[in-house]
Amino acid sequence: SGCAGEYKRGLEIMGIGVIDIDNPECMTLGSIQTPDCKTLDNMDKNLVDWYSSYLISRKDKIQSYITVR
Predict the structure, then answer these.
(1) In angstroms, how far is CA 62 from the centroid of its own chain?
(2) What does the CA dihedral 53, 44, 9, 25 come to, rounded to 10 degrees?
């Protein structure tokens, strides 16, 4: 919890963003609610599987913002 400045039980989300290193800013590309343990078990996935599948599903969007110098 940002307000409490400590961990609180509740919803958990994963957010991804891109950072502009020339102008220190971050733009959020997306976020998704992390499923509970029961849902993950039913999907035969763990948190690493869940997070990696989300990143893979957003790969094209992420790559569209990348400039290699």
Answers:
(1) 12
(2) 0
Model pTM greater than 0.70? no
Per-residue tens of pLDDT for the chain, all 69 residues? 566 677 777 778 888 888 888 888 888 888 888 888 899 999 999 989 999 999 999 888 888 877 776
Secondary-structure breakdown of the chain: helix, strand, coil percentages, each rounded to the nearest 5: 35, 25, 40
Residues in the chain: 69
State both tokens at 24: 């220190």
In angstroms, the CA 14 to CA 53 distance is 12
The dihedrals phi and psi of 23, each to the nearest 5 degrees, come to -130, 95
